[in-house]
Amino acid sequence: MTLLTYLRRKLGLTGTKLGCAEGGCGACTVMLSRFQTHTQHHYAVNACLAPLCSLHLVAVTTVEGIGSVARKLHPVQERIAKAHGSQCGFCTPGIVMSMYALLRNNPTPKMADMEEAFQGNLCRCTGYRPILEGYKTFTVVRQIYKHTVKTHSCQNTHSHCIFFFLQDGGCCGGRGRENGCCMTNGSGEATALFSTTDFAPFDPTQEVIFPPELMRSRSLCFRGDRATWLQPDTLEEILRLKWKHPDARVVVGNTEVGIEVKFKNMVYPVILAPSFIPELNSVTHTEDGVVFGAACTLSHMGAVLRQAVETLPPHQTEVFLAVLEQLRWFAGQQIRNVAAVGGNIMTASPISDLNPVFMAAGCKLTLMDKDGSRVVQMDDSFFTGYRRTVLRPQEILVSIEIPYSQKTQFVSAFKQSPRREDDISIVTAAMSVTFTPGSNVVEDLRLSYGGMAATTVLAKRTANRLRGRCWGEELLQEACSTLAEEMTLDPSVPGGMVTYRRTLTLSLFYKFYLTVLQKLRQQGVNVEEVKSDCVSATELYHPQTPSSVQIYQAVPKGRSQDDVLGRPMMHLSAMKQATGEAVYCDDVPLYENELYLSLITSSKAHARIISVDTSAAERLPGVVCFVFADDILGSNATGPVVYDESVLADGQVTCVGHIIGAVVADTQLHAQRAAKAVKIQYEELQPVVTIQEAIAAQSFYQPIRTIQKGDPEAGFKQADHVLEGEMHIGGQEHFYLETNATLAVPRGEDGEMELFVSTQSASKTQSLVAKALGVPANRVVVRVKRMGGGFGGKESRTTVLSTVVAVAANKYRPVRCMLDRDEDMLITGGRHPFYGKYKVGFLNSGKVMALDVSYYSNAGNSMDLSLSVMERALFHMENSYNVANVRGQGFLCRTNLPSNTAFRGFGGPQGMMISESWITDVAQSLGKAAEEVRRLNLYMEGDSTPYNQILDQFTLDRCWDECLSRSEYQQRRAAIDLYNRQNRWTKRGLAIVPTKFGISFTAVFLNQAGALVHIYTDGSVLLTHGGTEMGQGLHTKMVQIASRVLGIPYSKIHISETSTNTVPNTSPTAASASSDLNGAAVQNACEILMKRLEPYKNKNPKGSWEDWVKSAYFDRVSLSANGFYKTPDLGYDFDSNSGRVFNYFSYGVACSEVEIDCLTGAHKNLSTTIVMDVGHSLNPAIDIGQVEGAFMQGLGLFTLEELHYSPRGVLLTRGPGSYKIPAFGDIPTTLTVSLLRDAPNDKAIFASKAVGEPPLFLASSVFFAIKDAISAARAESGIKGPFRLDSPASAERIRNACTDRFTKLCPPAEPGSFTPWSVQV
């Protein structure tokens, strides 16, 4: 049992969350405290991996233990809440505990300490910036940052206004000048989203003490039903036990074995835990180096080596620095705190970060069994095969000696991974060279690589050729050509990226070559000087502390403080989320007779089911029953629009992850074990997996949509130039931190059932559950308190789970299921991959005359919402550009993948991405600046879209001009051009990109909303509406609206939940329209009530709100009202290309600057400036949070996140270990977000605009800045003009596009000559 299961299921402490079960997201972070070597140690760990039996003599502190809303919040909890760093809140307790653990060890941390502490934590909502801003207030350095804004002047002076920003996250509060600055005097702009003066002081002396009774040690034995845990406390005892149990696994941090048991179904009958054995935890300094006991954690090893680097002569610490460089990026802090150096070695991973360093340095390992010890060197003979070493079964690794380096020895280590922080390597390398003293003649050379074979390998052939040679250009050429021959990979190798990996072996050696040249010259050796334009290739990455500016329109002077509309009000649940008291679906207390469900899913993409054998599963403990299609009393047909899916597969499966049945058992563990024991026989059928396969097979859903305006053929004839291009945009996993969860409770009469569901679509869940149960919808109540993120992923696909759970509950008792991360990713689908082909005609000026574009989306094995997604892509095919003659077609590819679905932007980003591709191609083909071509083609007020909607209240031009100004675009461009002339191997790029996003459901009937408002006799108000809360602050905005209309403080208003028995027939919380729709419905209900109260206000004008309410009640006036709203004048017809598609448009512009490493493909996000039109913001803090969160999600979509599928349709990326969303370190170093001033929108509630989806596409500015940088790199090789760059712009794609002499040595295998590991779907 893990600590997480014990906390949540045994103790009922649900503040600690399950996000991934593999230690990759940090949602389950708790603090452990242990008394060791006479001192206390506090460290953050992943509770999902920590075995309960490993915690003997350990104090566990959870988020509930440090503060609560009722008692008192700890400053760590308070500051993340008040700084707006908690949106959906599911990740918040883990982030709180990471920060808390840091402060327990270091009450005055530096920013670098804080950033390191968060390397193991993920957030999908906030964009990270507000979390860092809130927690900067704990850091010791309080530098003042200045940001000069050149667009307006202060009230009292004619000089430009300077905003002052402290590192503590607040602003100067007007203290920057005697007379204040524009945020407090009359310019109408505000920048502070919170005030640090509201924070409680932090007193580190008031923390809980370590329990004295835990200051001891002894050996232990725990016996479970499948394993025995032995915890010896002496070296002799563990050697005796290992001799007795040679197959036993030795476990310290459980970071590897925990994954194997959970995800690979491994069973280890005996586990040895050596954490308390002194010899295995010791650190000894010898004449030759530092000896670490094998159980020393990576964090401890890092601390010891850092101390050594500070005290020893530099020439002795080359190996130590290489180890430390790898440790910087080794997993997250929570993993490093428990993972042991010995475990890292003995795991024998072929992509280990540290083993190449140990091998290149020739580290010595001491092995021991009960008969004696031996010392072996880590060389190419240590790893005997995949995950195998030379250790005999009875031996254990006792210690590793990391040697001092010699005076003429130079060592470097490299790691290249998709994401810098907390990521597994693609290729890792360590290189050590020793020279004959006083010369550049190579005496010894070791080149060690991970990720290039089934084991960590030494490039011995290359090293042998280079020994005795002089370190110079000739050696470099010889090394590269030999490495290219020696470091080969089978084209079908697991992990793919063959060309990239092979190129990296050369690129990394080149970096080493240049670094060594520099060090030789520093020692006075006569070698060639590294050219100034190559120096940047030798620089190690050191992140800069991010800084940010947020600008919004201040509320008018004189407005009552009780009127919170337009103010940066904190999310109403932020405090509860920060303390772990906010209740999510799986936090609902267990029912006494509750059962747990686990799904049985298909392992084949397309097959007939021959048989299902449950006999082995039936014999397992705790199993109660199985659920299959025959158990469905109602209809097995389901689907959000078309009933083309089944609740449970019946005879045939059409994707890997297709739900065939379910196991119901007494616990989650028993249910999951039984589900894995069910044996299914298939008759496989040929699957269609990719868009290209679907096109070849003409496998499309109907209809094929077309929008045409003008005469494209005539437009092409008028054009001076015509070019054609294509682009593929990869899919995206929602990665909401809270996976899909449902609790179904049968009520025992009339077929009634109550469901607690994490869903954006309560009413759709209600109707589909009722359909499956064979009862009317009025017997089913669906309740949604909050979601830990949704992003569209919980709009329609939640019913895949909730219908199955309801069917099972209808059969027996209350049934619960929360999917594990790997299940959720496998089953629920994601953003549609798109392939676009375009033909564009344009004049010499860059003006686009004609466009013909075809979109192909990978819809998956059912229609789901794919038609609406494609329609929105077509409605955004021109993005923000006026094209007189345009034709767009959309094809829905029917494939054997899990059905893809809604995702923030809903097809809009894919449609606009293709348009930005062709506008970039136009600029590159003409040799013009991209921003000039974009500006030339931008829409203007009164222009008509391809679907004949006139653009009014047009603000995009204002956004564009403000973004150019705030980003200082022209100065940046000049500086980048200079930088690129001065640097060969790093290049910078810049791009400014607009967006125009239509607001409304394209299905007209969904543009409606209801609300229900009760006023109680004490004056308190209960508000219910049709929208659901998933972190976007919808409930907070609804309370603000009600507060304004009712004229009462927001503290009197409460929203409990969303439920189908209060507001019926609700539309999904989606399409960015929920504030518009539900806000208007709330306004309507409140205005009805205010009209009823008006006579009592008139009678008693000096009375209080409570007086008026009581008077109305005693006068028998109803204090409850239903509100309703429908968006007027909507409706579009594809056949005639007429009607009004959208109620209005949201506009925005972003400018981003990046730097790429041309040798590795890595990139840095240097700066982003965003100007967003959100009308009159209802809540600037929430709206800026939505802008930043959407931007970061788009950053993942366009630069980082990749779903890998096998050619047979198997998803290969099923968790944070293999699928990487942006982390804290991915935010732009400088981030400015400005909400456009004086832009009221008369088509939505209180002149506001939608904000959830529109900003996401602005992250494409990073993609096109990368493309701009790649263009500069290609120009160095004499390559100019348009080129194809698919999305995401991963490190692999960036490197491969930067063609140079190294890439030419590693040509790709001929397509069709091999079966690839993964395919582009």
From TrEMBL:
Its main location: other. InterPro entries: 2Fe-2S-bd, 2Fe-2S-bd_dom_sf, 2Fe-2S_ferredoxin-like_sf, 2Fe-2S_ferredoxin-type, 2Fe2S_fd_BS, Ald_Oxase/Xan_DH_a/b, Ald_Oxase/Xan_DH_a/b_sf, Ald_Oxase/xanthine_DH-like. Residues 1-66 form the 2Fe-2S ferredoxin-type domain. [2Fe-2S] cluster 2 binds at C88, C91, C123, C125. One of its GO terms (cellular component) is peroxisome. Transmembrane segments: none annotated. Homodimer. The gene is XDH. It is found in: Peroxisome. The keyword Flavoprotein applies. The active site is at E1253 (proton acceptor). This is Xanthine dehydrogenase/oxidase. The lineage of its organism: Eukaryota, Metazoa, Chordata, Craniata, Vertebrata. Its cofactor is FAD; [2Fe-2S] cluster; Mo-molybdopterin. The keyword Metal-binding applies. Keywords: 2Fe-2S, FAD, Flavoprotein, Iron, Iron-sulfur, Metal-binding, Molybdenum, NAD, Oxidoreductase, Peroxisome. It comes from the Eukaryota. Residues 222-407 form the FAD-binding PCMH-type domain. Its EC number is 1.17.1.4, 1.17.3.2. FAD binds at V250, V251, V252, G253, N254, T255, E256, V257, F330, D353, L397, K415. GO terms for molecular function: 2 iron, 2 sulfur cluster binding; FAD binding; iron ion binding; molybdenum ion binding; xanthine dehydrogenase activity; xanthine oxidase activity. [2Fe-2S] cluster 1 binds at C20, C25, C28, C48. Substrate binds at E795, R872, F906, T1002.
